[in-house]
Amino acid sequence: MAAKALSFDVGDYVVYPKHGVGRVIELQRQEIAGMQLELYVLRFEKERMTLRVPTNKAESVGMRKLSSDKTLREALDTLTGKPRVKRTMWSRRAQEYEAKINSGDLVSIAEVVRDLFRADDQPEQSYSERQIFEGATSRLARELAAMEQVDEPTAQEKILEILRKAAAIHNKDKAPA
After folding, report:
1. Where is the CarD-like/TRCF RNAP-interacting domain (predicted)?
2. Which among 89, 117, 128, 155 could bridge 141 via Cys, Cβ 3.0 to 4.6 Å?
3. How many angstroms from the chain centroid is the CA of residue 49?
């Protein structure tokens, strides 16, 4: 077993797949069930949540540093693509979307945001579609904000602007000539 494959320092932003972007606020040593454990203490401001992750489990739970610039560009490019909406039952699609969001993969999250985005001239979303869309957008915006050192609303507006421009292009393609 690799002793320290992943190493995070206090102050680092990290991505925990199920919760999104958090910050390492402390490294702790605790005795639990007679064993000495080193723990990363993560703070997720948006959820007002603190999470302790054993350092030797960080990699297996999928905890990672913020995405690379290349991955961020790939995710933002994904937003400009044509939405892919499968014609399967909503419950099945919702499960797939949740799995993509919880994977922690920035490009997969961007796919969910792209596929669930509705422009102003498109039909209204259902409540559950809107909930998943907002969750995915927030997750994407928090990582974008941490990487570009802006606040979340600014990052969210950038994402929505990209989606609006892409929707205008894709809707123009549909319009009868």
Report:
1. 7-117
2. 155
3. 17
Task: Give the strands of the sheet with 13-16, arranged side by side.
Answer: 49-54, 35-44, 20-32, 13-16, 64-65
d(C-alpha 112, C-alpha 96), whole Å? 9
114-127 burial, b if ≥16 CB within 10 A, otherwise e?
bbbbeeeeeeeeee
> Which residues, listed in sequence order, are joined to residue 50 by a DSSP beta bridge?
43
Paired residues of 16 in beta bridges: 20
| Cα(139)–Cα(112) distance, integer angstroms | 11
pLDDT in tens, 130-177: 999 999 999 999 999 999 999 999 999 999 999 999 988 887 765 554
